[in-house]
Amino acid sequence: MTITVTPARTDRMEVPPRSRGRRDTTLLPAVFFLVAFVALYFGWALAESYHLDIAMTFTMFSLLALGMYTPLFLGGQIDLAYNAYLAAGAYAVAIIANRTDIPLVLAIPIGAAVAATMALVLGLVTSHLTGFHLALVTLLAGTAAYRWISSTGAGLTGGASGIGGIPRLDLLGIEFGREQLVAAGLIAVWLVAFALSRFRRSLPGLAVRLNRASTPAAEVSGIPTTSIRLVSLAMGAAIGSLGGVFVALMNQFILADSYAPEIVFLALFLPLLGGISTPWGAVIGAGLLCFLNEASAFIEGPGPLVFGGASLAILILLPGGLIGVVALGWSAARSRMRKEDKL
Amino acid sequence: MAIEWIDAVTALRVGIVYALLALAYFLFARTTDTINFAVGGYAMAAAMLYATLTGGGTSPLVAFVVAVGLGAVLGGMTETFVIRPIASKGRDEFVVVLAITALLFVIQQLAGFVFGRRAIIGEPLTAGRVELAGYEVSFQNLLTIAVGFVAAVVVGLWIGRGRSGRMMRAIGDNEQAGLTLGIPVRRVRLIAASVGGLLAGLAGALTAPQAGNSFHSGVSLSIVGFIALVIGGMGSAYAPLIGGVLLSFLELGTSLIFGSTSRDYFLLAAVLLVFIARPEGLFSLKVRTT
Lengths: 343, 290
Fold this sequence. Notes:
The complex is a heterodimer of chains A (343) and B (290). Chain A has helices spanning 10-13, 17-21, 27-45, 49-75, 82-99, 107-125, 131-152, 154-157, 178-201, 203-213, 215-220, 225-251, 262-274, 280-295, 303-317, 321-342, and strands at 169-171, 174-176. Chain A is mainly alpha-helical and 343 residues long. Chain A has one domain (31-296): Orthogonal Bundle (ABC transporter involved in vitamin B12 uptake, BtuC). In chain A, strand 1 and strand 2 form a beta hairpin.
């Protein structure tokens, strides 16, 4: 009997099929958005003064949406108190600038710490709640926070009329005027989105996503689910507070009405519209909002209806959002091209 | 501070409206396993429609029927076009939550377009007042209490004893078992959702003559209804009624002691307290599984 030994296909074995799925896909979108942001800043934002305001609105909504993205789309936690976190950042700037001698730059970590602490406290008292119950408590907390800044805490927050006269941030001898703030804001958005996309694929990120898919499975895998949940809530809140910091520094005044709970609903839809499989979806959603807002008095007029309707349609029909649609179109085109090649 | 009995009548009226909203939640939760956060949107839409119709000269009774009907239609449409399609794909819980939040948002914005963005008040169903123990009470207030109470009791009886009501509970406990037993699951779910919408519409139409209704009020109606459900629990069809009335009386007590601006803090504190002390609400549901 002769035995023939087939040589092992070492070329294939070296690249196990699983590793194809683990290809690093975070760099390409990051480079794309970096180029887009640079072009947006130098080609458009600097051209006219009110373009800077629109770019800052984009920054704020992007950071707000990225903040919401963190616990919601990574961990499945619906936190609707984001108006409070945004306010934490903005009021940290205003109060530190006008009522204390603390250097203004410290408002950024202080605002983030206040927001993260609020999210942690909410997370701890709602530790056994998920879904609608968590949404209800956080929505009520956001409403209570708005009530506090607009009336009860008026002694500190200036009530409905807010706080004005915020000086420009001076850091290492550089005065952050409108142009510099917009540049810093865009860099912050890029860094946060890139960091989140890297985090999503890292081991802790996988743990957060596993916790969302199945908490019991995460627990038997030895993942500290409670800590992971709290960390994702706090991280999101801190990101949201950054949006408030930038807006307060840009406008040099803050009004309580800018932090009403309604803003949360608009921001909630942004990652959905862009696509929830990547944090860049939140940035695309924010860009879309600002673009449409330019076309008309959009946010005051049909904007919320269009956004809500589109989000609803996407949730029911197209779970991937705009990025999902593009990806679907791309894979359909590729399979068609392959078929044509075979023919 | 003494509570005048007239305040108690007002609290009862408000509490009955909360109870109707909570009962609407209850019906959706019991059959579709979904907290339908859009019920406040149905109530707001019904209130706006009622106020617009009566403002245009339509008879209050006709406007009332049409407005309540709108609630039922919205409830049925939510089940058919939102809850069922998403549930059938077996998606995460938070996707359903987001979709329903988006739906509430859409209903509010649509109402803003159709009925205008200014607050409007409807004509009362019945004019006139009656003097009771030194206070004048409007017939509308008494009617709201009576109609709301009767509706809650009728729905309670239907859920407890009615044929489709019992089917509804069976589906809520175990939909697969319901299907195996030959229960027309789709139809029963649609009936429950429509009745839920109808109750929310009733809540809206009854409150339309009381206070200014604007397209914004959907969220706050959704919130109070949900809190009433959280307080009452899901253990009995009458739990939402008790939860709603209790919430309203607690709200009255707090505003008398701490002033009306304390309401937002009170609602947060009440919900946290219930979730910490008795997360299942006053009446908990026990399903026999063996």
